[in-house]
């Protein structure tokens, strides 16, 4: 599935994490700003959940960062 999104839309993984139920959540995006969110179950079944435009990468921050407390 990832190869298909890269070949057809130029989208590659830019973020991923594990949901409470054990599913992997991945966000794919390209340099034109389109993005797709995928869920993959532990057994390997994947599902496209959302798509959109205007993706913007942001610098990671920590809860101790003063900007968050403002």
Q: In short, what is this structure?
A:
The chain is α+β, with helices and mostly antiparallel strands and 70 residues long. It has helices at 2-9, 66-69, and strands at residues 12-18, 24-29, 35-40, 46-52.
Q: Helical element count?
A: 2
Q: Give the oligomeric state of the chains in this entry, treating copies of one chain as homo and distinct chains as hetero.
A: single chain
In round numbers, the mean pLDDT is 90
Distance between the termini: 41 Å
Q: Sketch the major β-sheet.
A: 4 strands, antiparallel
Envelope shape: flat
Give the total of beta strands. Answer: 4
The share of residues in extended strands comes to 35-45%
Radius of gyration, in angstroms, nearest whole number: 14 Å
Strand arrangement within the widest β-sheet reads 1-2-3-4
Number of domains: 1
List the helices and strands and how they pair.
Blueprint lengths: L1 H8 L2 E7 L5 E6 L5 E6 L5 E7 L13 H4 L1
Antiparallel strand pairs: 1-2, 2-3, 3-4
Could you explain how this protein is built, in words?
The chain is an alpha+beta fold and 70 residues long. It has one domain. 17% of the residues lie in helices and 37% in strands. It contains two helices and four strands. The protein has a four-stranded antiparallel beta sheet.
Give the key terms.
alpha+beta; four-stranded antiparallel β-sheet; flat
């Amino acid at each position: 599935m990832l190869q298909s999104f890269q070949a057809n839309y130029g989208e590659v993984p830019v973020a991923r994490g594990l949901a409470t139920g054990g599913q992997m959540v991945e966000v794919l995006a390209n340099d034109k700003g389109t993005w797709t969110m995928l869920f993959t179950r532990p057994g390997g079944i994947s599902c496209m959940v959302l798509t959109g435009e205007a993706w913007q990468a942001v610098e990671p921050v920590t809860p101790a960062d003063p900007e968050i407390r403002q």
